[in-house]
Fold:
Amino acid sequence: MSSTNERTEILRLVETGKLSAAEGIQLLNTLDKAPRQVSPPQPPVNAKGRWLRIRVTNLATQAPKVNVNLPLGLVNAGLRIGQHFAPELNGINWDSLLEEIQQGANGKLVEVEDQADNERVEIFVD
Structure:
């Protein structure tokens, strides 16, 4: 998906209420900072109707801190957002994770608990 198409999709999701204005701004900023790929990315398998979901919750209260839902077509931007909110995930091989998603992975892909910050980060596809 081209940068223009990604921006249009983000704005459409904000307009329809599927993303908040703040989430839309974060995605647009992520697109601006994302390095340009030399070769076009492979489209995700059966991406239509599938979602990437990123959740950050407080371990003690189970209260949500971050709740981002993105169409699977915007998975690159979604994973960049996840990295921003959860720097403790820097040890994850993101290229491998992207490849799994593009090949049709489903369900919970990542779950990390940070006891120091009292947070749980979950990334899954459905």
In short: Residues 3-37+46-125 form one domain. The first helix runs from residue 3 to 15.
